[in-house]
Each structure stands twice: as structure tokens, then as C-alpha cells.
Automatic annotation (TrEMBL):
It comes from Geosporobacter ferrireducens. Residues 15-73, 82-137 form the CBS domain. This is Sigma-54-dependent Fis family transcriptional regulator. Residues 243-270 form a coiled coil. The keyword Transcription regulation applies. Residues 138-189 form the PAS domain. CDD domains: AAA, CBS_pair_SF, PAS.
Length: 588
């Protein structure tokens, strides 16, 4: 059926007229640039009388470039590298004759001649564009053509199932026809452009594409319609990897392809293990040992400590060592609006309230089933939610908002806070019965200023990690900078140290972290870093006074911005503004 359809067409019905032609004395460099700009895979060489005297294809160019050893060789005439004795076809010939001649000669294109003059070009792709045929009738017929082409050809049906996989495709991608034919293309090439063609039902022409890592091709793909119905799609792929390596001009055009595929880096739970917990000071090793003992149980744990001491790291470490099969789910109680707390914790049924999703939503407690629920800043949980949480701990059951189905849960609770819960209990700000439920095992994480012998280890760890992530060399730290780091009180604890180390690396110079690399609020705080002369600039002194006063207020309020604003007698919004203005990143 395909051959009969092809016999209905003449080559003039199928050929393309938009060709790239050059004269024999055109340089190789100019020819390459014209091919790149014209997005074409061949160029025809003509003499003064416009007669064809040669043809150069991309594959011919690659072979020619292998013999080019000097830059000046790009100034050679193109006729030196063109293929002579070009096989042509007369304009009166039928498309079937063109197909047979291409198969016989093992070529993929034929110049079309009329009265000894070039009028067009017929390619295998042009034949596929013109002839409407059913996919299952193409397989055996095109096999003879495809196996003799330089291009890799793939045909899929409307469901994306591969029905034809050419010989060149096997060599280009290293996938055997027997393995891929009859299976969906996305199983082998999730990003294949043929899938996009099927979805959008539009052709894609001359796109540089990387269907898999390390493979670069120039691909054209078209949808196949029969009687107006989409029946499949076909693609022709040309390997351009060798061109990238041999041609400087082509390399520039394809340089950006190295960045088309980026991996999504996910958090690796293995980093949260006791063996990898940083710190060798006696005070922190004691906390690690206590955490190891409690990890194997299901007891509730209350972790206390200032902001930035690593309370969540300890919580994740305990979960990782517990062997519980469920996930670790963290909730920041200070970040959830009070009116959304219950739905966030327990979930809700569809249509339970205005704005609720139609399908409902699972809550954090249910999500943590068989795992660990980490309640950070538990001291900020509203009283009404404290009562509901207590009931969950007692009954091990929840009911979604707007629902009536009781859901059994098996969740371990680890909570954390920088606030004094005992004082809050006395002030009726925190339920006493819940406090004792949560405080079965108590872990108080020491502040960084109480274990300064761990600072060198943290500095090395954070600096190595940041430099590796950003592909930069690890700078050297000047002794005076290290003395400042060791003498600083670190009110923001480990979080502040991590941010400071990143700041130091960013503003290091000539591979060294110097005093001027430090954030401004450090200046003057080290015992070894004294100003050599008095500063009389009024604005500078006001700035330093404000920074110093804000830091002292935040330390007194233990990081609570609302209390710090009251101590400073300024609105909370003004405090936020000044913290950002002076780049006090540890308090953001």
C-alpha cells in the first residue's frame, strides 16, 4: 500500500526548494557557518554556470575535519572536501524511483535536476512528510531504507509504543530493536521529543537535544496523520557528538547543552546518624550518648536549647536511629496561623470549611504514622491545640476536621523549644499534663559558647561543604580571624556560625579569609582585633551602637523578636527592618 501511494507522487511534489548552495572557491570556514546559520545538513557546490560539481553533508564534513591539523586549513576551498560525482534525479521521475535509488546507493538525499539545472532536493524525511500511511504498514517497507541511512529513525504509534527502530538508532543509542520495539518509548527515553510531538501534534525541526546523558543529537520529528487522525510520529536523529569535538564553531553553538539536564538533589537521611554528628566536646558527647539510649524506645523526648543549637538535627538523628519505618515529619508551631492549626495537624475532609480542597487533605500527625512527629517551638502551640494533642497522645487516635472516622495512629513525639516550659506552666501558658507527657526524656542541647572546642570542627565542616557545593577552592583562614571566631559568643549558635562561614568564603580574597571578610557586626568583638585609631565619624558610631544594642537585646530575649522590641522600646516592624538593614543574618 505504501509503495502504491509513493508511486502517485513525482519528485517535484515532494522536494524542497530552500537549499544552501556555494561555489567551488568558497572556504571551508564560510561553508560551515552557512550550514550552521541555515540549520541544514548538506550544501551543494556549483560552478560558474550553476552546474552541480559536488555536495558536502555533515558526515562528510566530520570525515574531512579529522584530516585538518592546522587552523589555516579552514581557509581551504570547499571543493577539496566535497563529494564529487553527485547522484541526481530528474524532475520528471516518480518518488518511488527516488526511493529505490537512495536505497541502492545507500544515501539519504537526491538533488533534483531540470534541464541540467538544480531546482530542489528530495530527502527521506521529505518523503515521510508527504506520504500518509498507517504505522503498521510502514514497518517492513521502511526497514530496507532505514538500515542504509546515516540518520537514526524511530517510529511510534499514537500511544508512544515503538513500532520501528532503525539500524542507525541501535548504533547511536546502544539499544537493540528487539528490546525496544513493542514497548513505550518513555521507558527508555523519558525526555524524548517524540513524546512532545505526540502530545502537541506539531512537528519539531532541527532541535539539538539530549535524550539521555552523554548523547547529543540534532533531531527532527513530525506527527503522522491519516484522514485527519493522529496515528503516530516519526523522528530522524543525527549524531552531532563528533562535530562538537572537532569543530570550534559548532562547539560554541552547542556549549549550553551541558546545562539542560540538572539533577534534583534530595536530602539524604543517612547524614543524620550518631556516627556523623559533629562535636567531640565532653558536654555534647554526653548528650549524644543519652540520645542513643532513648532512640531505641518509643518514649517522648523534649529537646531544649537556644535557637540555632541543632535541636532538629538531634530529633532527626533520634528518628534515624530508632528504626521506625514511617517518615520524619516536622512542624514549626510558631509558623502556623492559629486558625489553621487544627486542620494542619489533623487534616480535613473535603468541603469541611470555606477554602478547603474538594478531596480533603491529610494532616501532619496522620502523615507521620509509624514514624516520628517533630513539634518544633512547642511552646508556641495554642492552648486549645495542646488539649487536642494531649488526647492524641492518650488515645492514639485522630479524627479529621469535618469527619467522623476514627483513625488509629502510631506516632512518636519529639518536641523542642527554646522557651522555659516550667515557667510557662506556672503562668498557665502551657498545660502541665501535656508538659509531663512530652517531657518523659529531657535533652538540653548546650549553646555553642559552652562548647567552643567544637568550633574548629564546625568551621572545617561548613567550609568544606559550602566550597564543594559551589565548586570553589577551600580558602585558608588567617590566624587573627580564627581568634575572633573563637572569642565570639555566638548568640545565634551553630546556625549563626554556618551563615558566618559562608559569608567568610564568599568575601575571601586571594584564597584567604581575612579580617575584612568578617560581617561588620564582628568588627571590634575579638580580643585580638582592636581598632588602631579612634573613629570620629558620627554616623559610623551610631551604626555600631545600634548593632551592639540590638545584639544585646536579642541575647537577653533569647532570640524572641517581640520581647527584644519591647526592651528596645521600638515597634517589632522597626526591629525587623534594622536586623535586615545591618545584615544580622543570625537573627532573621
Amino acid at each position: 500500500m505504501f509503495l502504491n501511494k509513493l508511486d502517485d507522487y513525482k519528485v517535484t511534489d515532494i522536494m524542497v526548494k530552500d537549499l544552501i548552495t556555494v561555489h567551488g572557491d568558497t572556504t571551508l570556514r564560510e561553508t560551515i557557518m552557512r550550514m550552521i546559520n541555515g540549520n541544514t545538513e548538506e550544501v551543494l557546490v556549483l560552478d560558474e554556470k550553476e552546474n552541480i560539481i559536488g555536495m558536502a553533508c555533515t558526515t562528510d564534513m566530520i570525515k574531512a575535519m579529522k584530516d585538518i591539523s592546522f587552523k589555516d586549513s579552514f581557509e581551504d576551498k570547499i571543493i577539496k572536501y566535497a563529494v564529487k560525482n553527485v547522484v541526481c534525479i530528474d524532475s520528471r521521475a516518480k518518488a518511488l524511483e527516488a526511493r529505490n535509488r537512495m536505497k541502492q546507493k545507500g544515501i539519504g538525499r537526491l538533488p533534483v535536476i531540470e534541464n541540467n539545472k538544480l531546482i530542489g532536493m528530495i530527502r527521506v524525511k521529505d518523503i515521510l512528510d508527504k506520504v500518509y500511511l498507517k504505522v503498521d504498514e510502514m514497518r517492513q517497507t521502511f526497514r530496507y531504507i532505514l538500515d542504509n541511512l546515516h540518520e537514526a529513525v524511530c517510529v511510534v504509534d499514537k500511544n508512544g509504543v515503538v513500532i520501528l527502530w532503525g539500524d542507525r538508532s541501535e548504533k547511536l543509542y546502544g539499544v537493540k530493536a528487539e528490546d525496544i520495539v513493542g514497548r513505550k518509548l518513555e521507558e527508555f527515553f523519558p525526555n524524548g521529543l517524540l513524546l512532545k510531538v505526540l502530545q502537541e501534534k506539531k512537528p519539531i525541526e532541527n532541535v539539538i537535544h539530549s535524550p539521555r546523558k552523554g548523547s547529543y543529537v540534532n533531531i527532527s520529528a513530525i506527527p503522522l496523520f491519516i484522514n485527519g487522525e493522529l496515528e503516530g510520529a516519526v523522528s530522524t536523529d543525527r549524531d552531532i557528538t563528533e562535530v562538537r569535538n572537532l569543530s570550534l564553531e559548532l562547539e560554541v553553538a552547542k556549549e549550553k547543552l551541558d546545562y539542560l539536564q540538572m539533577e534534583v538533589i534530595k536530602a539524604n537521611e543517612d547524614k543524620y546518624s550518631f556516627g556523623k554528628t559533629l562535636g567531640k566536646s565532653e558536654v555534647i558527647r554526653d548528650k549524644i550518648n543519652r540520645a542513643m539510649q532513648v532512640a531505641a524506645t518509643n518514649s517522648s523526648v523534649l529537646i531544649l536549647g537556644e535557637s540555632g543549637t541543632g535541636k532538629e538535627v538531634f530529633a532527626r538523628t533520634i528518628h534515624q536511629a530508632s528504626g521506625r519505618k514511617g517518615p520524619f515529619v516536622a512542624i514549626n508551631c510558631s509558623a502556623i496561623p492559629e486558625n489553621l492549626f487544627e486542620s494542619e495537624m489533623f487534616g480535613y475532609e473535603g468541603g469541611a470549611f470555606t477554602g478547603a480542597l474538594n478531596k480533603g487533605k491529610i494532616g501532619k500527625i496522620e502523615l507521620a504514622n509509624k514514624g516520628t512527629l517533630f513539634l518544633d517551638e512547642i511552646g508556641d502551640m495554642p492552648l486549645y491545640m495542646q488539649a487536642k494533642l494531649l488526647r492524641v497522645l492518650q488515645e492514639r487516635q485522630i479524627v479529621r476536621v469535618g469527619g467522623d472516622k476514627v483513625i488509629d495512629i502510631d506516632v512518636r513525639i519529639i518536641s523542642a523549644t527554646h522557651r522555659d516550659l516550667k515557667t510557662m506552666v506556672k503562668e498557665d501558658c502551657f498545660r502541665e499534663d501535656l508538659f509531663y507527657r512530652l517531657n518523659v526524656v529531657n535533652l538540653e542541647i548546650p549553646s555553642l559558647r559552652d562548647r567552643k572546642e567544637d568550633i574548629p570542627m564546625f568551621v572545617k565542616h561548613f567550609m568544606d561543604a559550602f566550597c564543594k557545593e559551589n565548586n570553589i577552592f577551600v580558602p585558608r583562614i588567617a590566624p587573627e580571624v580564627f581568634q575572633i571566631l573563637m572569642s565570639y559568643d555566638w548568640p545565634g549558635n551553630i546556625r549563626e556560625l554556618k551563615n558566618t562561614i559562608e559569608h567568610l568564603v564568599i568575601f575571601s580574597k586571594d584564597g584567604e579569609v581575612k579580617v575584612e571578610s568578617l560581617p561588620e557586626h564582628f568588627w571590634g568583638k575579638g580580643e585580638q582585633h582592636q581598632e588602631s585609631e579612634a573613629v570620629y565619624d558620627l554616623q559610623e558610631n551610631i551604626k555600631r551602637t545600634e548593632i551592639s544594642t540590638i545584639i544585646k537585646a536579642m541575647e537577653t530575649a533569647k532570640g524572641n523578636k517581640a520581647q527584644a522590641a519591647k526592651l528596645l522600646n521600638i515597634p517589632r516592624s522597626t526591629l525587623y527592618y534594622k536586623i535586615k538593614f545591618y545584615d544580622l543574618i543570625e537573627y532573621l
